[in-house]
Amino acid sequence: MIYFFIFLPIVGIALGIAIRFRERSKNKPIIEQNSTIAHFQPAAGPKLEPRRKADLSPTSVGSSPYSVLIVDDQSAIRMLMRELFELEQVTVYEAPHGKAAIEMVQHHPIDFILLDLKMPDMDGIEALREIRKVDTEVMVVMITAYGDPDKLEAARQLGVQAFFTKPFDIDHVKNHVMGILNKQETREGEVS
After folding, report:
1. pLDDT tens-place string over residues 3-42
2. How far apart are the first and last CA of the chain?
3. Rounded distance, CA 165 to CA 12, Å?
4. Buried b / exposed e along 28-37 (16+ C-beta atoms within 10 A)
5. CA-CA-CA-CA torsion for 47, 183, 36, 71, nearest 10 degrees?
6. 28: left (phi over 0), alpha (psi -120 to 50) or beta
7. Architecture of domain 29-189
8. Which of 22, 109, 187, 190 could disulfide-link to 55, CB 3.0 to 4.6 Å?
């Protein structure tokens, strides 16, 4: 019996290492655009002014000028991603479904959206179409368990920069998002 209690944690640790290695090796973004960021341009309608980092409210976490919106119907994923980005001093907003995500974008300056493709009220593509009516400049990465080619193409046309498949390596997602945000800050700070 004592061997069972000694052996069980060892097996758990080994299994955790094996799973993490597998996730890292297979979880690279499906779509990676060039270093330039594609922006969605609406067909018609009034020109919207993009929000700038100066619009952030004083309730921002830490000293980072960035804000990230995590849209996923799984609360565990939202909580995990929230903790990860808050460690980077990023202001984090959460939405459990597409309608809440649209409201967040309407009421808060969002720099980056992590958007689940499959949600109960509307899928990520429908939500993103509505978000683009409010903010054409916000950067978006989609998270999905399904890689439907039609959805991938629709997402590309809406300016989605990458797809991550579930289960994903959270450190890889964080590094990808922070890398894009830091590149954007560098570009905005350059003097011509």
Report:
1. 656 756 676 676 556 555 555 445 444 444 333 333 334 4
2. 72
3. 24
4. ebeeeeeeee
5. -60
6. beta
7. 3-Layer(aba) Sandwich (3.40)
8. 109
Listed by start position, the domains of the chain span 29-189
Peptide bond between residue 120 and the one before it cis (omega within 30 degrees of 0):
no
Distances in Å between the alpha carbon of 3 and those of 9, 11, 56, 70?
A: 11, 12, 56, 43
Structure token pair of residue 116:
């689940």
Task: Look up residue 63 and give its amino acid.
Answer: S
- 139 closest CA partner among 49, 66, 87, 191: 66
8 Å CB contact between 126 and 97: no
Amino acid at the residue 156: R
pTM (two decimals)? 0.66
E strand or H helix at 174: helix 170-189
Among 94, 140, 83, 134, smallest CA distance to 117 is for 140
